[in-house]
Predict the 3D structure of the following.
Amino acid sequence: MHHAVPLRKTDISSRFGRNHGKGMRAKIAIQEQSHEFIHSIPSVNCAPGGARVQHWPIGVERYRVTGLPESIDALILTSDLQGADRHDVSVLHRRLVGHVVAEHLEMLCHTETLPPAERCGVLLAGDLFAHISLDKRGGLGDVIPVWKDFASRFRWVTGVAGNHDTFGGDTRSMASLHACDGCYGLDGGVVHLDSLCIGGVSGVVGSSGKPWKRAPKHFESMLHDVLDHGPDILVLHHSPQLIQGEELTGSELVADVLSHHATPLSFSVSGHVHWPSSLHIKEGKHQALPLFNVDHRVVVLQREDLL
């Protein structure tokens, strides 16, 4: 049964304490830190400064895992699919590259490179919009069509909003997703899908009034509340900082919470900034936590006994 669970602090405090995860084991285990590169998807976007078109293919990587529910053979993780499918046709004939990623992944399922699509869940970590005119970077736009495209091809889709995403024109809520079959937006809550508890916080840490930017204390409180709910998987848009003092690697606040908040997380998935490698193992106070960065890449976590 698939259902979303809104978080209420009064309920959480009675079920879980801050150290509820101590001594518990993660459900899903990554079997090796090296990945298998299995596919490349064309993508173009406006280059920084707007002077030219940038070609940046989206790689598809696969890791072996154990512990997936019996009903699931793979989890597909991706974010920051900011670009168009091509530049050599008129704007009317271009599409957001997220649609193309969904098509390519379904094709890999049909050719048995990946398991059947109906046995693959999808985790989206935000930022699926781009100006397909390719005349400027960034911006805000409706990403519900991309979510629905993934949901129409795969078992279900859940995830968070990025700071370039709107949902039916709404810049501060994912409520419009509630009417979309197979789509489960996460913003300070959890969802239960195929016996997996998946939690998430949308947006980024910031002090401005821009869409999906949250003051540090607000973001931190939301993240603690989600972790108090004991999810198996955490989805964020804002990746944690890996190297102290290097701001571009991610958020120091997110890194600190993940280091000290005890939880039986199997892994976290995030984007917003690009890491050289998709997987980093973070040594925390209570566990070694796999962190996946899927900024402009796709990571597939596939059941080991199928490989």
Summary: The chain has one domain: 3-306.
